[in-house]
Amino acid sequence: MEKLKNKYIxxxxxxxxxxxxxxxxREAVIEKNVDHETKEERRDSLIKRFELTxxxxxxxxxxxxxxxxxxxxxxPRKVFQQCLVLGFINSxxxxxxxxxxxxxxxxxxxxxxxxxxxxxxxxxxxYNVITEVIKKFSFDAVKNxxx
Length: 147
Description:
Strand content: under 5%
Structural class: mainly alpha
Number of domains: 1
Distance between the termini: 12 Å
Number of helices: 6
Shape: elongated
CATH class: Mainly Alpha
Largest sheet: none
Order of helices and strands: HHHHHH
CATH superfamily: Nucleotidyltransferases  domain 2
Number of strands: 0
Radius of gyration: 16 Å
């Protein structure tokens, strides 16, 4: 149970850091006096925080499913699909989470400026679904499900 709690705390922290990165990137894009290099640095920071948030999210959900349901799943896609099967999330959220996998894989395996810009622009949408999922899988929800 302590392991799950720690994973949740870390997920919430990086999620908060992602929110800050989104705002800083948005400001850099909007402000006319921000140089190109700063915009790129903020975009790359945003993408990195997105990657970290994604990794912690699916690993937390995997631990949650194992702890609460006694089911072992071994990949992000299977974790998200299992959450749907168990009724923890709906089909729209599942689809959004699958899109997270695709964007995460794109940023990890190939670096292309246009692709990085596209992913950076998609991260706000991803942030919103991550926020909803975190609420549904809060550590308090875990404690309630186990009692």
